[in-house]
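Sequence in, structure out. Go.
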Amino acid sequence: MAVADPVYDLTFKRHYLHPKYWLTWLAIAALWLLAWLPVRARDALAGIFTSLLMRLAKKPCYIARTNIKLCFPKLTASQVDAMLAHSIRAGLMTFISYGEWTARSKRYLQGRFKVHGQEHLDACLAADEKIIFMIPHTWAIDAGGLYLTSLGLPMCTMMHSAKNEVFDWFINRQRARFNGIVYERDAGIKAVIKTIRSGKHFFYLPDQDHGREASLFVPFFGEPKATLPALSKLVKLTGAKVIPVLSVYNTKLHRYELVMRPAMAPYPTSDITADTRAMNAEIEALLTEWPEQYMWFLKYFQTQVDTEEGRYEAGIRAIRKR
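Output:
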């Protein structure tokens, strides 16, 4: 029996034209048009909707506030709200600029980035090292991956399918624009290991909660977090170097920035728990100057050490009752 290709199928399907997707196509067309709007005007438009979204998106804002309070317990309620507002504003600016990465030229897109820590990447490339770019969930995460592939770096990543087939096709077609390889997440890690061994680099997202059975509980900003211990295993199996990376959208300077830290060393060690904690420590270091760029609405702390109930469920039930 033939094994299905784990690479995401970018072929356009006829059923994408079904009327149920017409609103999606309208949204994609709007993103395309917004890509040609002057950047400062587009960012100003995004900023207008920040306060409205904070009032309407009660469940995501509750999750985000909970996460920020867990990670920064010394912040006052007003400081938490200020970070949340800044995060939403950065997210909106990034979202309405999303069409850039399909509509605009490679030269234009590269000019939208400022890179910090280029020497760490250059050192690995000069030594002909395979690289795992360890990158947490920021609003500009896709832009960072596309920038790296636009430089000619052979890259692969894994994706989680969106509920909307057309938007899923659109974003993955965009991710693969500069010859990046996008794998279906349910394909497993074997295809990625084979691809890294062949000489390609891996764009790895390390920070989501994958449940109790697959994870170790290690601190993240001082809070126990169910963390997937896969990174050190990947390095052992591929011999790759790990460069921690953060992709952000600077809302003041109206540009993207890519922050790269030195390759993790020594890594891995004989202690997988220590290795997993070291990964979280790198994420903390990356976010120290850019905490508002994080996707705080994700359920990073869903799995708890001492109970089967998700961290956020009681608060979500209360919101639904109201």
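Check: The two ends are 53 Å apart (CA to CA). Strands lie at 113-116, 131-134, 155-159, 181-184, 201-204, 216-220, 223-227, 241-250, 255-260.
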